[in-house]
């Protein structure tokens, strides 16, 4: 913007300088040419009016007269030509001039006071003046003698003066533009100062400093912009503060409710376990009701635990207790603990050691495999490998692959959102709706990333977890 302002300022200055120089040049040029032209025409007319010739005019007499007129030419010497019937005479070596045009001959013969033209021949400017020689017949009548005289004067001197004017205008314009650069820089600085302040303020606000304000100077449009920014920043700060307070209250509420539900849920789970054991001795309807209560109580317990876990992430109270473990053995242990060994195919080479939080890594694998078993299709595969990132650091890469219908494109951006349901009509699920959100938070806590995509060919979904190996070493 600074460059554009300076260029615009210089453009205006340049146009003004060129316009002024052009007008000055035109007026000066016209003045120089007009002065030379008026002097020459007036002097030539005076010389013709003083002529005393006896008709018919003889060549020797006419030649002497022409030389006499040429010697008195003003403002510079002339070459004088005469046309008298078929006679062509001049004061120079050539009796005929190539710069006298037929148009001038026609005008000079038809007008008692003559005519003139400016002609350029081979790049040289000339002033040509043509006047008939007449005599008065009395009572104001004027008769032509048939003799027409032409004066031809080079205007190289005037041309040099005009070129000198052009050079002076050009030489004056360039320093003028250089001098105009100084106020252009000052103007650009004064205009851009509030813009730079606005940019810095916007950057600070983008960094989370919502109390940023701009000092208002003056009463111009930029000052109005600064006031508008301050008002908008104040409204945004108040709105964000209210939202943060509401969010904090909601998190605290979820945490408090989850914590308060744990105690009664523990008692309910104990009772449902006893009822499950005795359900076989109950009548079928009662047994079905008991099993339903037991299943729903289990789901509620999972939901409460997940709510408490996500609340810890929201409060930034989640801790990472890392240990150097064998990644393959950790995955196999997760599958054994949940009786998924026969349902999941593994491609996990031994010897890949990484610094992980075993409990949180177990939750990541369990949530991804459970999600694949519930919503994907067999076979489900867990694959483990290592690779390097862009900076050359080692990464632990874990993939969970299923052969189900895949994830719809409009669902992919939301699979890790809390309580997101791909099918709005599906109001019940065997999960809490927080599993993948908790997975993402656990991976982030390890400094890694998790992403979801469809397998090539659109058959099945692939969840990929990438976690820095930390101080672990790849030994396999």
TrEMBL record:
All copies of domain Histidine kinase, residue ranges: 256-471
Domain of life: Bacteria
Localisation: Cell membrane
Class of the enzyme per the UniProt entry, highest EC level: transferase
A molecular-function term among this protein's GO annotations: kinase activity
E.C. no: 2.7.13.3
Known catalytic reactions: ATP + protein L-histidine = ADP + protein N-phospho-L-histidine
Major subcellular site: membrane
Keyword line: Kinase, Membrane, Phosphoprotein, Transferase, Transmembrane, Transmembrane helix, Two-component regulatory system
Signal peptide positions (record): none
Domain HAMP: 189-241
Cited PANTHER family: HYBRID SIGNAL TRANSDUCTION HISTIDINE KINASE C (PTHR43547:SF2), TWO-COMPONENT HISTIDINE KINASE (PTHR43547)
Protein name: histidine kinase
Organism: Streptomyces albipurpureus
